[in-house]
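Recap from last week: sequence in, structure out.
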Amino acid sequence: MMYVIGGRGRLGRAICASRPATEIVAPEREVYERWWQSDAVDSVARYFDRAEPGSVVLVVSGVLDPALPRAEHQRVNVELPARIIDGACAAGLRVVTFGTVMERLLEHPNAYIATKADLGRLAAERAAAGDPVTHLQLHTLYGRGEPAPFMFLGQLCRALREKRPFEMSPGRQLREYHHVNDDVAAMHAVLAAGAKGVTALSHGAPCTLSDLATHVFASLDRLELLRIGARPEPPDDNYATVLQRPRALEHIHFQPALEGVTAYVQSVLAGAAKQA
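Predicted structure tokens:
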């Protein structure tokens, strides 16, 4: 049985759809919204005491927008999964948390990345101590709904919808864009391999943001709207590091980013993002 904490989000919905309904429990937010509090471990343990042996708890909930207060990131991205790790491990269950590959790539992280890095360190410490805890670091996800407005694809789609110029940096940043369904398949592969500790769900074939944007705008015959280099280059980003594909993911097929993202953007503009 899989317990999905945060089943309403992009990743949570994809996980729930990847298994028969009889194998998934996705508690309503009201069940776990107070589990971040310091005295919640007993409540977490009692909730999971009734779980079938061998069940896995996936802590998918998280705050992504770096503009939100640091305290909110701390509550949802660190304290909530920390209490779930304590309570679910006490009940004999395996726990999987989710972070970002940027935890290992940026020297000066924002609130989102910094709190995910804190969570990753906590998960690594628990795994080293013998607890069945896995922390999966994700690349940029797309698919299953509209892109977040503060993300690169969200801003790109807005410019295309409004038929206005899209201003961006020179775009040398390296990114792996993964369809969310591919990352769910990768997650299942890592779990089947019994991995503990920290694993980056990488395929090892990143593209630059400039190549991605050029492919999307050219495919939509809107290159005149693309303004590469109109904004300054971020001083702290990933311009050189390519993360290698873990052995457990050798058999996973990842959609090519340029074609996959372009098809997704087309579906968003057509109003069919839920199916993309």
